[in-house]
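Input.
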Amino acid sequence: MVKRTNKIILSIVSILLLTTVLVAAWITPFFYFTAGANFMIHIYPETNMSMLGDTIANYSDNKFAERTLNILSWMNVNISECNGAYAIGEDNTPFQIARKIRHKEQTPVKLIFNNLRTKQQFAKIVAQQLMLSENEIMTLLEDSTSCSIYGKTPETITNILIPDTYEVYWNISPSKLLDRMSSYYNAFWTEQRLSKAKGQGLSPDEVQILASIVEEETARVDEYGKVARLYMNRLKRKMPLQADPTVKYAIGDFTIKRITHSMLETASPYNTYLNNGLPPGPIRFASKRAIDSVLNAPQHDYLYMCAREDFSGYHNFTSSYTRHLANARRYQRELNHRNIK
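Output.
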């Protein structure tokens, strides 16, 4: 009887051990097998399980993708409600990936933009990097009510979009994106910068509008401050800025190499040959370096500038109109010599 009982117990133990081994062998891949590569998953509202599986398989393998989808199904996860960007590490298991998606543990992505002139360019580059459409962004940037939330107009709203690298969620909404930009803008305009702007007799918006003109006027960073002061000298004397880049902006063509007299007559509030003072908004997204160059512009009495005839990118500065005309003639002769129209 004892032998029989021991045999039964041994059989039961054997079955339990075998079952345990089989279950462990079946479960192990879900908890211990890893992706083997670093990649990013982007889940759109229209993404389904099959599409998600294809994405994972592209970076790992079909079996790993299948295990991940199985866990998501067991968790009863609705993929369409989990849109966002998820960074997957090479050591992540199917269970860890599924849990990350289920709890919507998104990974912030980097939004990078610089060297932009227009809202349209901004909308396009953002739409390329985030789950936003160009139309969504443009609608917000053109809406007076939306712009007023940030103390801006549709003409000055781009001032809060300071070129840099930002960390945001890939599925961020247009309004939340502007909130993020506004927070950065407010942090940039420190008490020190505000004090310097006041000392120059300019508001932050005016500083950035002037900085945008300076940045278009010269490609030489070491000239930024000098050019900025020249324009401020003209503003104080109530002289028109007569900045060629504003004419190009008014025409809508920055590829123009030579400004003609007919172009100077272009009707636009941005044409500083026809209108005194600063234009109603920036003509490009001013960089932090250009903004600080305006705030820290060195003192001088120059009122006129003309590109050097050696095409070095630098300018000849003078406070004499007669000398300026002589500088302009030399430059015009060189344009003619090089057949630049």
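The chain has four domains: 23-102, 109-188, 201-296, 301-341.
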